[in-house]
Design brief:
The protein is mainly beta. The chain has strands at about 5, 10-15, 20-25, 30, 35-40, 45-50, 55-60, 65-70, 75-80, 90-100, 105-110, 115-120. The strands form two sheets. Strands 2, 4, 5, 6, 7, 10, 11 and 12 form an eight-stranded mixed sheet that branches. Strands 1-3-9-8 form a four-stranded antiparallel sheet, with no helix packed on it.
């Protein structure tokens, strides 16, 4: 069974740091672009950062300069290093893969279950 599993969320004070991980499991032999999205309380889900299979990155203006997205293709894992956290970063963070190559054919637009990040002031 193919799945994406996030970890690393938690409670942190403003100004602190957290590192999120998203591990892909199952019979996966390729992963195209991946991304981190977040949904703050009472708001719609929004993009935080994306990374292509070759490592090109893109960030939302709200996190640029504070968050760093990366991936380890051999480990099928994506990361989000979050520094200088602010209370407005409080949200459930979701990882996404736009295309997974699997032994049962391609799977598109797969999401993890989310991990909660809470930043206290």
């Amino acid at each position: 069974q193919v799945q994406l599993v996030e970890s690393g969320g938690g409670l942190v004070q403003a100004g602190g740091s957290l590192r999120l991980s998203c591990a892909a499991s199952g019979s996966i032999f390729s992963i195209n672009a991946m991304g981190w999205y977040r949904r703050a309380p009472g708001k719609q889900r929004e993009l935080a950062a994306t990374i292509t299979s070759s490592g090109s990155t893109n960030y939302a203006n709200s996190v640029k300069g504070r968050f760093t997205i990366s991936r380890d293709n051999a480990k099928k894992t994506m990361y989000l290093q979050m520094n200088s956290l602010k209370p407005e970063d409080t949200a459930v963070y979701y990882c996404n893969a736009d295309r997974l190559g699997t032994n049962r054919g391609p799977q598109y637009d797969r999401w993890g279950q989310g991990t909660l990040v809470t930043v206290s002031s």
